[in-house]
Amino acid sequence: MNATDGRPLSARNKASYIAAKAAYNARELDQCLTFYAREHQIMSRPAPPGREHIRAFLQETLAGWPDLRLEVAQVVAEDDWVMGRCVATATHTTAVMRIPPTGKQVVTTFWDLHRFDEAGLIVQTWNLMDSLALMHQLGLLPSS
After folding, report:
1. Which one of 39, 59, 109, 123 is most buried, by most CB atoms within 10 A?
2. What is the pLDDT of residues 43-65, one digit of tens each?
3. Nearest Cα to 122, choosing from 28, 2, 36?
4. Domains of the chain, start order
5. Would the pTM count as exceeding 0.85?
């Protein structure tokens, strides 16, 4: 099936995923949120429907990691599904996981899966982050 502009839905949704990440990196949260449906729901943690929950999640992430940069490494799209792997780089300048700021630069990977509606908006999101790599870099895990 094709989008209204003639592109396959998967291509449209993949482009929207990449554009949403670019808006996030530019700290243009209002622009980033235009890619999410009003009834969007975060599925990887208990949250009721509503775009305000993804806004809060994005704002909390930036508050904890003010210089966070996301590099989209891979994106796979099929029909109304888009799966991405991003590399996140940030400096530990605020208390995170009860760890006082260390000033260390940390790099971790996260994956997100999004389901898009017919209008090309994200309606559901699942997130998974490599928390072990982050905890290791913050000194919460012993070196091997």
Report:
1. 123
2. 998 889 999 999 999 999 999 99
3. 36
4. 9-137 (3.10.450.50)
5. yes
